[in-house]
Amino acid sequence: MSTPLAQYGLIGLKLGHSFSQRFFTEKFAREGIAARYDLYELPSVSGLPDLLDRYPDLRGLNVTIPYKERVLPYLSDLSPEAEAVGAVNTIRREGDRLVGHNTDIYGFERSLHAFLQGEEPTSALILGTGGAAKAVSYVLETRWHMHWQMVSRAPQGNHQLSYAALPHVNLADFRLIINTTPLGMYPDTGSSPALPYEALGPDHRVFDLVYNPAETLLMAQARAQGARVVNGMDMLIYQAERAWEIWQGEDAG
Which fold has domain 105-233? Predict the structure, then answer.
């Protein structure tokens, strides 16, 4: 009797843009791993328990928009970093327990370090307030000791600004701008965050977490103003490799 394939996958609302299935399928083939990786579009995160019942061989899941925060009530435990951030993008199944991790932190930290090339901005604008934004702010605060503010359509608290307020903000004070929203992601490639692009210049560094297309409208507009830009592909690869390490860790089964 053949051993069932180990199963992994991605949960989210709309997954047609996903890179993860190809990445892990190629990784399994390259390393001779008997496993498969599937996409599981869930109309609601409440469908997670039923998904796990239907696929008892699922050993791990990635989590994407909009469930990185909504998935928390369905988990048995959180890693210290996932608990600190309040968002999960990787789940490891340990018997009947689901343990949440956040590998966006690792992926963003490594890719930001490479992008900045030794530069040390003191302030950053984070576009968006979701799970990815929380991972980004955690890295900026704990690893870089950087002041940051989030930008939201419905701002709350002292750390959040509205997009309408940005034309009145001195963007020279925020040399690093990080987009954590899905604006500009395929297939909606004609959209971009409502920034006063004319206020950007050669001293700005713009990091777009979107990776498809390779150059988003945000990146093109920022580059036209002389800013240095990067997309989220390296971050995606780093976080995916870290997720695999977590799934294959001690006592994985």
Answer: Rossmann fold (3.40.50)
